[in-house]
Amino acid sequence: MAQLHRIQPIEGVQIIVLSEHVDYWNRLGWKDPFSSKAFSDRQNWYSMRWPTRVYTPQAVIDGLVERVGSQAKKIQKVIESAAQEPKGRVEISIADGEALVTVSDLPRKLPAQVRFALVEDDLSVDVERGENRGRRLAHVGVVRSFETLGEIARKESERTFKAPFELSPEWNEENVRLVAFVQERRTRAIVAATTVPVSRPETSPTGPQSGE
């Protein structure tokens, strides 16, 4: 994930990385400070469409394809294929302490849900127990906050959503970015995505590719 995020190895494709830490490994005696039952539930929601068990590390690409998170070459190949699919537009701007998320030109059938996340990069944590005991793990794209802003109806060609957000004093603002993406409700396909750093609140470019 860190390599995909930092190197961006596919020309013309912006890979947007979201790391959603599940909570079911907390039973090993050490609680992941970034974990949430909501992310475990989201993984289970995805697994309903695939003949695979729930496992970690699991990578989900564009909401449609899953691969083992350590299989870098296979993941990159899936991203290259997914990038050939038409994408819509998402833009994020920041005004008066809230984000404005504008969605337009969606290429697929609606309805679709608009998701919004606060993501922090360059985090590390010392693991005290469990399989990784004694190791310091580095993380990028850690999802700090995740919500659904609303839905794009079948006949809507453009819509703007307001997304009030608040940063925790524990977060490093320089490493926090906003992510917005549009996900078809039926197929789970991500059809538009973008990201913008909180510290540089200019309107974001459209992101052609999203990975979870």
Question: How do the helices and strands line up, and which of them pair or pack?
Answer:
Layout: H1 2-7, E1 15-17, H2 37-47, E2 58-61, E3 65-68, H3 72-82, E4 89-95, E5 98-104, E6 112-120, E7 123-126, E8 136-139, E9 142-152, E10 158-164, E11 176-184, E12 190-197, E13 209-211
Parallel strand pairs: 1-13
Antiparallel strand pairs: 2-3, 4-5, 5-10, 6-9, 6-11, 7-8, 11-12
> Class in CATH?
Mainly Beta
Distance between the termini: 10 Å
Strand content: 35-45%
Q: Strand tally, please?
A: 13
Structural class by sheet pairing and helices: mainly beta
Mean pLDDT: 90
List low-confidence stretches: none
CATH architecture: Sandwich
> Can you count the helices?
3
Q: Can you tell me the CATH topology? A: Immunoglobulin-like
Please explain how this structure is put together:
- Helices cover 13% and strands 38% of the residues.
- The protein has three helices and 13 strands; from the N terminus they run αβαββαββββββββββ.
- It has a four-stranded antiparallel beta sheet with strand order 9-6-11-12, with no helix packed on it. Strands 4-5-10 form a three-stranded antiparallel beta sheet, with no helix packed on it. The protein has a two-stranded parallel sheet with strand order 1-13.
